[in-house]
Amino acid sequence: MHGKFVWVVRMSNYNFAFFDENSKREIRRAIFKAVAIPGYQVPFASREMPIARGWGTGGLQLTLSLIGRHDVIKVIDQGSDESVNAVNIRKFIQQTTAVATTHQTPDATLVQSRHRIPEIPLREDQILILQVPIPEPLRETEQSDTRAKRLHAEKEYSGIYLSLFEQIMKHGQIATGADHPTLVHDRYVMAPSPIPRFDNHKLNYSAALILLGAGREKKIYAVPPYTQVESLAFTDHPFAAEDMTGKICRLCGARGVFFDEFIDPTTQAPYYQCNDTSFCQQRMSAELETTWGEQGDH
Amino acid sequence: MGYVAVKGGEAAISESIKRLRLTRLRERQIITVSSIKSCLRGLVDRVMSEASLYARDLAALAIKQAEGNPEEATFLLRAYRGTLPRKYYSRLVTTDDMAIERRISATFKDIPGGQLLGASYDYTHRLLDFSLETEEISDMEKWLEHYSKIPPAPLDSLPQKMTRVADIVRQEGLLAAKTEDNTPPQDVTRQSLSFPAQRSERLQALTRGETGAVTALGYAAIRGYGLLHPTVAELRVGNVPITIDYPLEETSDPGDALYIGRIQVTEVDSLIPSIKETAPGKKEINFCIGYGVCYGQNETKAIAMSVLDFCLENPVPGSPVHDEEFVLTHVDPVEATGFISHLKLPHYVTFQSELDSARKIRLGGAHEQL
Fold first, then answer.
1. Which of B13, B82, B352 is opposite residue A196, by nearest beta carbon?
2. Do B353 and A196 lie within an 8 Å CB cutoff?
3. Strand A110-114 to A188-190 pairing
4. How far is A64 from chain B (nearest CA, A)?
5. Distance between terminal CA atoms of chain A?
6. For a tag site, which of A194, B120, B306, B354 has the least CB within 10 Å?
């Protein structure tokens, strides 16, 4: 018997985009529901993937359910197209679909991303797919999903506001890192995935459809185009993004974008590079106007 | 010092994959899939059970590819399973039809049908057998020939179907009354687990749970974080036939059913005493059943599963092992290892964001001191 089944591991023996068509349809049905109820977490039968749980299987399932032969895919991980996981996921999508891939944000029809929204604004004909580790914004204040679901249903969000208030009491300010909770369409509190606070404003009235997928937690949710997304805050303690003022990219000279921080080993002084590497490269090769970001910081 | 490269990951990754292949091959030894299947039964059984795919050949292949790492082999097999369409669901499998290879009971010394020890490590001393270091094919042939000459045990005297120990207790009226629940089972791989979960969902999540995780939580339950001490009424290992409804017509006539093969399972009925108040002030002890079943011979896992099945049927506030959300969401091997291992991924952005908050707070603190 052995020897006969070795062939199954070759990709040619898998369907286009890995899943059988029924599985894809089922995921798309969940997407429709998510779009219809902005910010609401739709449970779906998350499939086991050849990529590890927690490494982007939610985003990947969204991508594979949507991708067609004429799509152009861009995959980024923490801002980089060449990060280990971005390479891995892009390779898998390409192996199972043979679609074109790109690093350039404007050329992509589908952008799958972990923890960043590209610096170049997305258009109506693009879809952004964000990978989500913990889809439940209330998890920190309510461990049980059953109870959290009830809180969402009743729009009972005093717990999460209270936790922000406690941070102000303790630290003098809201102390969230990435994944700062948002309120979508004035109805559901939503985890924007661990994007930096700097990217939260890009969710608000985004021209592109934004889909969020959590594979391990088996949830899909969405921000439809031109939907209001507010970051939770108080009137006397307004929401504050990471402070990028005065910082400038050492490679391309950009300002007002999200930067990675490095330490110069000789001078011990910090220096900065654009976190969005394809944006940085496009600027260096002068494909983008050099005045980017100089009109003001976010 | 130089600028940090923005490109270059792709080449490094492809070298890393080559390195992995080299590590597997550099001792210039190859293990065949068929020898894994025949000689690493324990690992094959474990991987099939955690992957919830009964396929000995594929499990052996996964083990070869994963260099014997059960975490990785389970992952490979689960990923493959994810691409398989559900063509049929089997008809109800009754373990009454099991071809029993091993069957023991801890409740009564003498049970109808007898204790059948079968193949087990339970009665061995765990001493390294150094003779295996030099075991040759000829040794194997010699031993097998010798064994074949021993007159076979009088298996014919065993009853075809053995009475369940639990049924004996039931006949005595000691088993807590339960109505039969014939709700069609939910397929947790087609509809995601939601809470409160049905029993069918719980049993599926437990049977495909990671062996160590299920064992650890089962252990916690009997050691003191749960409220019970079970007795194994019966542990069975054997093959059960699998049949499907005749697929070309709408029929559920058992006479038309097709036999598609048999699977080896381990099945456990545990008896757990519970105290019931029959009348005010009058208490009575009767027994409840915890049920465990899994692919292959995985006895510890099946027993631990039976303990957890009971725990989850009887929630106790404040006890994690009686909390289905806690138990079921954390025993899955692929989910647990995936999320733990994702910590190896770059977290530059998220960490930068935390750093920003930490720095702002420090500045704020200094400001207050001024």
1. B352
2. yes
3. unpaired
4. 12
5. 63
6. B120
CA distance A83 to chain B (A): 6
A78 close contact with B: CB closer than 8 A: yes
The pairing of strands A219-223 and A209-214 is: antiparallel
Distances (CA, A) of A80 to A48, A116, A253, B92: 25, 9, 18, 51
Contacts of B7 in chain A (CB under 8 A): 82, 277, 281
Give the residue on A whose Cα is nearest the Cα of B60. A2
**Up-side HSE of residue A227: CA atoms within 13 Å toward CB?**
25
| B192 reaches A (C-beta below 8 A) | yes
Q: Do B9 and A86 touch (CB under 8 A)?
A: yes
Chain A residues with CB-CB distance to B13 below 8 A: 84, 87-88
A261 touches chain B (CB under 8 A): yes
- Beta-carbon count within 10 A of A69 CB: 10
What is the complex's ipTM, to 2 decimals?
0.70
DSSP result, A238-283: -------TT--BTTT---SS-EEEEE-TTT--EEEEESSHHHHHHH
Global pTM reads: 0.82
Q: Would you tell me which CATH number, out of the four given (3.40.50.11310, 3.40.50.1110, 3.40.50.300, 3.30.70.3400), belongs to the domain A6-136+182-231?
A: 3.40.50.11310
Which residues of chain A does CATH 3.40.50.11310 include?
6-136+182-231
In a structure prediction context, what are the per-residue pLDDT tens digits for chain B, which is 370 residues long? 344 555 567 788 889 899 999 999 999 999 999 999 999 999 999 999 999 999 999 999 999 999 999 999 999 999 999 888 888 889 999 888 899 999 999 888 788 888 889 999 988 888 899 999 999 999 999 999 999 888 776 655 555 678 888 888 888 888 887 788 888 888 888 888 888 999 999 999 999 999 999 999 999 998 888 767 888 999 999 999 999 999 888 888 888 899 999 999 999 999 998 877 777 877 778 888 999 999 999 999 999 999 999 999 988 888 899 999 999 999 999 999 999 998 888 888 888 888 888 888 888 754 444 3
From the list A47, A52, A177, the residue facing B353 with the nearest CB is A177
Amino acid identity of residue A280, one-letter, is: C
